[in-house]
Amino acid sequence: MSFSDDVKKELCRLTCRSENEMRAEMAGMVMGSYVLAGRRRDGDSRFSITTEFPFLAARMRSVSKALYGSALTVAIQIVRKQRVYVVSAESEAFTRRLMKDARIDKDGASADIPPYFLSKQHYFKAYLRGLFLTCGSVSDPQKKYQLELNGNSTPFFENVSRILKGYDISSKARFRGEQGVLDFRDSDSIADFLSLIGAAKAALEMTNVKIVKGMRNDVNRKVNCDVANLQKSAKAAGDQISAIRKIEERAGLGVLPKALREVAELRLEHPDASVQELGALMQPPLQKSTMYYRIRKIKKWAETL
Questions:
Q1: Topology of domain 3-198, per CATH?
Q2: What is the pTM of this model?
Q3: Could you report the per-residue pLDDT of 244-274, keeping only the tens digit for each?
Q4: Are 13 and 82 in contact (CB under 8 A)?
Q5: Whole-number pLDDT of residue 120
Q6: Where in this chain does the record put each Sporulation regulator WhiA C-terminal domain (predicted)?
């Protein structure tokens, strides 16, 4: 199963605290599956959606049973060698009840979230949970940070995005071809959204992945920095040794003043040491700035030969 499947499975295991919370979740599922898919209530058409997820089909069936006393029916079909689940209302009367609770009339739905589902925070959370279950997806955080709600109503997504800003959750409504998308790309906002709709385990997993990635990136940056510093030090040491060898071959190190000769001899004895380490080996020990000064003098001496 994908990470998105795991999230939806976690959400489908949640227990609603009240009938009104169930009603909000059901309304969100109907909104996500019916209106955002671009449908309208035409004639005597019955509510029906198709999903690949058996746990979502079971969730819709159990919630509808608890709310209305009769459940949505679930039929199994094979499409392109893959099992899918068709969830539908048995009658037009049942469809009307679903649409009424979702605040959807014969012309479709308003771009605004029904005020009733905004009246209490846990209603809004349940409504969002229903939306995500039927029209949402989230990428594996190991690969990339992205959560989407997909549908056919960008103005509706814009209103959802505006409300989510009050929860410090960043999202953007946009078009993808002719399709509307509510897009979440910020890892913190994705984790907060998942936590808001009740997927606490998934939110924690995403946070942990971000922490591990951050630590790994910090380690990589430090390693890269250390490697760069070692390469820089090795090149500098090579240049210093070349200058000292030039003096040794053309005039002998004895031509150098004692202070410079001691540095030159020490560098030849310890070709891999840093300038700071060389300074610590001097008797008495010298600061790095003093060592750099003497090395520069040695290199200038070599340039005259």
A1: Endonuclease I-creI (3.10.28)
A2: 0.71
A3: 888 888 888 888 888 888 888 888 888 888 8
A4: no
A5: 92
A6: 219-301
